[in-house]
């Protein structure tokens, strides 16, 4: 199986996918572009790139691995860290304070984006 893989700055994942999708379309090649990014690179520093890709109607599959922290920087708090969770950047102290703000929505789909689908699979949801 011949699959090209690009390791890029995680904040720019959606922007790179948009460029690659458009380049393949210009060349007349039907290619599936898949992004696999973490929640920090999705709901925090990568949200503008993701928003731009959706606004342009980029044809790609975006998979957000939500481990609820920045895994590449030692599990620092991200916008997807749930209320009450502890991370390596949770302040210490006698009362052991926890995160007090709510996490970003797991489904990041403002109405103006109109993606063709926005599934939210999770191993933590029991049926």
Report the uncertain regions. Answer: none
Fraction of residues in helix? 10-25%
The end-to-end distance, rounded to whole angstroms, is 35 Å
Return the string of H and E elements.
HEHHE
- Gyration radius, to the nearest Å? 17 Å
Multimeric state: single chain
Q: Could you report the average pLDDT, rounded to the nearest whole number?
A: 78
Strand content: 5-15%
Main pleated-sheet profile: 2 strands, parallel
Order of neighbouring strands in the sheet with most strands: 1-2
| Domains (count) | 1
Q: What characteristic shape results from the CA principal axes?
A: elongated
Derived from helix and strand composition plus strand pairing, the structural class reads alpha+beta
Number of strands: 2
Contiguous helical run count: 3
Notes on the protein architecture:
By secondary structure, the protein is an alpha+beta fold. It has one domain (1-113). It is 23% helix and 8% strand. The protein has helices at 13-26, 39-44, 47-55, and strands at residues 34-38, 61-65. Strands 1-2 form a two-stranded parallel ribbon. Helix 1 (13-26) runs parallel beside helix 3 (47-55). The longest helix is centred in the N-terminal third of the chain and has 14 residues, at 13-26. The radius of gyration is 17 Å and the shape is elongated. The N and C termini lie far apart (35 Å). The relative contact order is 0.15.
Summarize the structure.
The chain is of the alpha+beta class and 127 residues long.
């Amino acid at each position: 199986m011949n699959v090209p893989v690009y390791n890029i700055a995680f904040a720019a994942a959606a922007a790179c996918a948009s460029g690659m999708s458009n380049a393949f379309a210009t060349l007349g090649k039907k290619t599936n572009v898949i992004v696999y990014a973490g929640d920090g690179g999705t709901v925090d520093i990568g949200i503008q790139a993701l928003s731009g890709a959706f606004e342009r109607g980029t044809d790609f599959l975006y998979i957000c691995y939500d481990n609820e922290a920045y895994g590449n920087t030692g599990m620092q708090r991200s916008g997807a860290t749930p209320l009450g969770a502890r991370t390596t950047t949770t302040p210490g102290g006698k009362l052991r304070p926890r995160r007090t703000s709510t996490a970003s929505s797991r489904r990041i789909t403002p109405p103006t984006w109109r993606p063709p689908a926005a599934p939210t699979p999770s191993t933590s949801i029991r049926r």
